[in-house]
Design brief:
- By secondary structure, the protein is mostly helical.
- It is built from 25 helices and four strands.
- It starts with a helix and ends with a helix.
């Protein structure tokens, strides 16, 4: 009886809503219901399961995290049937639901995100086939399909498994599809877009850009090169970086960042200027981006860091680091000029005032480190160096141990102790620091900060778009050797 009810279709909107509410209550509260549902998913023909997927998607999309054992068997059963469900729904509106369920299972189900098996490879191939063969696929379905490839790539690459990367990056038809999605939204449209535009071309544009950025990030680990180069103009990236849509901003920044990380020579991503500058300066020699464009990018990044919007902030901090590292590698004088702008110290002071936020702390230490490396001496910088030492002396140890910001903080301290800045520090402050680091050393010796073997991507659902907030961030945990090195310098 329950199986018949699960598989039945409702034509009336009120009946659908009533069934959906009842489904959610029973799914949450009844183990017998979950057992019956799992059996239905496992044994019934795929075309009869589509009504169940509608209701299951309504349940999954409301969850931020998911680690409940009673649901694991059900989600595993659904995941196993996904390739066949996708094939059964081809050509109908139900294909969107299948893809949404697939994305949410990967986002929430811890077991599915840690393993790449034959079913995952089969599903990826079927999604690629759907995207490249159906020219009339609606925008929201295209977005969902690209989202699935994106999250699967992130999770498998995080486990040092690059089979999905190889499948995607060698498919020229898919890369051309991503190019089309990116090119389909012009610069003028980017400046006008805002809010959730998943039903328009902007949603699939963002999804495509994020996937290309991920491919550029991980291609260095794979043994194959891209079969097609996706091109993006400097002008388009500037327009997207300044958009009112935070997802577009984050997408553009991740594209900038992965391009700089590849030393501007990615096999899958090429950035170029559509309108050539009439005059180039001497400092432009050897750069893949003009010094004028680099200055404009840094202004945009500093503004975004100052605004402190979480979704964009992660990407802006990292983009600033790699853009300056690239310019320093190519032209030391230009890099120094970029760092020494007065606005840098104003931004630094603003970040210092918000250092209670882990995000702002990372940005603060990153920018301060850049100024110290360039030997910038000013009342502002000297005062903030003292504040950094006080931060370590006063912040609770349980906040220091797992924090990436703390690793950056120790980098700052190391630079200060091995430079002329040390003579500006109060002896009592150095004594307090020594005592604090000794306590921290004891904690680390006792094993208070275990090192995780793999990076777990921080994936969030933003509107209809799946986004990895920390794709390009350097992930570090404070280690015993870091603290021991500082104590040796303080002796």
């Amino acid at each position: 009886m329950l199986s018949c009810w699960l598989l039945s279709k409702c034509d009336c909107k009120k009946e659908k809503e009533k069934k959906a509410n009842c489904f959610l209550k029973m799914l949450t509260n009844s183990s017998e219901f979950r057992t019956t549902l799992t059996r239905c998913v496992t044994t019934n023909p795929c075309d009869t399961l589509l009504p169940i997927l509608d209701n299951l998607q309504g349940f999954l999309c409301t969850k931020e995290s998911f680690s409940s054992p009673p649901f694991e068997e059900l989600l595993t059963a659904v995941q196993t049937r996904l390739p066949d469900l996708l094939q059964a729904s081809a050509g109908s509106e139900a294909v969107f639901t299948v893809l949404e369920v697939a994305c949410n299972i990967r986002r929430l189900h811890t077991k599915s995100s840690s393993v790449c098996d034959s079913q995952d490879l089969k599903m990826v191939c079927k999604v690629i086939q759907l995207l490249v063969r159906d020219a009339h696929l609606v925008a929201m379905t295209t977005t969902a399909g690209i989202n699935y490839l994106y999250i699967t790539l992130l999770q498998t690459a995080a486990m040092d498994d690059f089979r999905i990367l190889s499948v995607i990056i060698t498919n020229s038809a898919l890369l051309q599809k991503l190019q089309h999605c990116l090119s389909n939204v012009g610069q003028q449209e980017l400046s006008l877009e805002s809010g959730d535009s998943s039903s328009s071309g902007t949603g699939q544009c963002i999804a495509a850009g994020l996937l290309v950025a991920a491919l550029a990030k991980f291609e260095q680990h794979g043994s194959v090169k891209a079969s097609h180069v996706v091109t993006v103009t400097v002008e388009w990236l500037f327009a997207a970086s300044s958009s009112t849509d935070q997802r577009l901003q984050a997408c553009a920044l991740q594209l900038w960042t992965t391009w700089f990380i590849s030393n501007c020579h990615s096999s899958v991503l090429r950035v170029y200027r559509d309108q050539r500058l009439s005059m180039l300066r001497d400092e432009d020699v050897g750069l893949s981006i003009s010094s004028r464009d680099l200055r404009l990018l840094l202004l945009i990044l500093q503004r975004q860091i100052y605004m402190d919007v979480g979704l964009v902030h992660h990407s802006a901090v990292r983009c600033l680091q790699v853009a300056l590292a690239y310019s320093r590698q190519k032209n030391t004088a230009l890099a120094q000029h970029l760092v020494l702008q007065p606005w840098s110290q104003t931004l630094l002071q603003a970040l210092a005032d918000k250092c209670e936020s882990g995000l702002s702390a990372s940005a603060f230490f990153s920018l301060l480190l850049l100024l110290i490396e360039e030997s910038v001496h000013s009342t502002t910088v000297d005062g903030l160096i003292t504040q950094t030492f006080q931060y370590v002396c006063n912040v609770p140890l349980d906040r220091i141990l797992p924090s990436t910001a703390s690793c950056l903080c120790t980098d700052v301290i190391y630079r200060v102790l091995t430079s002329g800045y040390r003579s500006h520090l109060d002896k009592q402050l150095l004594t307090s620091l020594t005592s604090r680091l000794t306590t921290l050393q004891e904690k680390l010796i006792a094993g208070a900060s275990p090192i995780e073997g793999h990076w777990k991507p921080d994936i969030i659902l933003q509107g209809a778009t799946l986004m990895c907030r920390d794709l390009c961030l350097v992930r570090r945990r404070l280690e015993l050797k870091d603290v021991t090195k500082l104590l040796h310098l303080l002796q």
